[in-house]
Amino acid sequence: MKLAKYCIYTIANREWIDQAIQRGEGTRSERKAWTTGLRLFNEARAAGERMPILLADSIEDCWCLLAWGILEKIEIGHGGTTFSVSGARRLNPTRNAQDLVLAASGKHVAEGFRRPYAICNTPRFLALLGRKITEPVGQESLDLLFDEPVTLPPEKIREAVGDDGVILDSEGLRRWTKHFVTERSAKNRKLVLEYFRKRQGLSCMACGTNLAEQFGPAFAGLVDIHHLVPVSREERTPRPKDFAVLCPTCHRMAHWKSEAPRDLSELRTIIANSSAPRRRLRVAGR
Q1: 233: Cβ–Cβ under 8 A, 6 or more apart, which residues?
Q2: Domain containing 77: what range?
Q3: Which H or E run includes 56?
Q4: Were both Cys, which of 35, 44, 76, 273 would link to 4 (CB 3.0–4.6 Å)?
Q5: 45 falls within a domain
Q6: Is residue 149 part of a domain?
Q7: Which of 40, 45, 39, 9 lies closest to 119, judged by CA?
Q8: Is 280 part of any domain?
Q9: Statement to judge: residues 122 and 218 lie in one domain
C-alpha cells in the first residue's frame, strides 16, 4: 500500500474513535467543507495512492494523536463533509500533534492547535504501521517505525512486531501527560445521587433497572450520573434537574454513535420498541 504525500488531521470524540478501532472502520460528518482535502484525496486515488487520516480526541487529548486509518470516501454537501475511514487502528506509540507538519506553511502544528481539520505532510512513521512484515525487521525499518533511531535486542523486536509479523498495539503503558481536561465534580455526583435517592430512588430513569434490587445490596449505587446538558459545551454551575440517573447500559446508549446525547424520552422509546426479551421494568416518570 502506497501512502499519499498528504494526510488529514482531524479531531473526534474518544467514543467514536474507540468504536472505529473496534470495527476497523467508521463514518463521520464535520461542518467544515474539506474542499482541498477532497481534491488531494481524488488526486491520490488517481495516482493509485491511499490517503491517511490521523485522529485526536476532541475533548481532552487534542494534542495527542490516538489513531489513524485510510480515507475511503470524502463527500461535501450543504451541511459540511462526510468521510469514511477503513483500517482504523491505534497509534503505538502515540504521537504528539506538534510532530505533524502543515502542508500549506511547512511549519509544525503549533501547541494548543485545536481545529477539526488540517492538511499535513504524511509523517514517516506511518510508512510501516499496519504493514505486514514478511522479512526480518532491520534497523532501517525500526527507525522508520518509531520515527527515530532505536536499538532493540532480538526478543524486543519480536515483541514489537508480533509472532505473525504484524505490528501490534501495546497496553498498560503508564505515562505522565499534560493536557486540558473538561472538569467534572465528584462532589456534584454525591449530591445528585442523594437528591434522587430521597425523591425517587436510584432506579434507571430510562429503563427502570435497579441493580441493588436485581443483584443484591452490594450493587447499591452502581448508577451513572448523566449530564442532560453536555458538560463540554461550557463552564456552568448545574442544578440537580440538569442530571439524570442512568444504569451503565442506558448511559452508554445515550452517547452511542451520537454527537449530541439522546434525551430520556428517546431512550425510553428505544427501550419500549425493542423486540429483545427483558425483565419487567418500572420505568421512571411513567
Answers
A1: none
A2: 6-127
A3: strand 52-57
A4: 44
A5: yes
A6: no
A7: 9
A8: no
A9: no
Q: What is the distance of C-alpha 125 from the center of its chain?
A: 21
Considering only CA atoms, which of 281, 259, 255 is closest in space to residue 268? 281
Collapsing DSSP to helix, strand or coil, 195 comes out as helix
Name the most confidently modeled range: 43-47, 111-115, 242-246, 272-276.
43-47
DSSP 3-state of 87: strand
- Beta strand 52-57 pairing with 6-12: parallel
pLDDT per position as a tens digit, 80-135: 999 999 988 888 767 788 888 899 899 888 776 767 789 999 987 776 554 443 34
Cis? peptide before 93, omega within 30° of 0: yes
* Number of domain units in the chain: 2
Q: Length of the chain, please?
A: 286
- CATH number of the domain that 42 lies in? 3.10.590
CATH number, domain of 200, equals 1.10.30
Q: What angle do CA 248, 231, 202 make, to 5 degrees?
A: 35
Sign of CA dihedral 19, 20, 23, 28: positive
The secondary structure of the chain in percent helix, strand, coil, rounded to multiples of 5, reads 30, 25, 45
Residue 47 is classified by DSSP as T
The CA distance from 126 to 123, in Å, is 6
In a domain, 151, yes or no: no
The rounded distance, in Å, linking the Cα atoms of 50 and 70 is 7
Closest of 105, 103, 127, 108 to residue 36, by C-alpha: 103
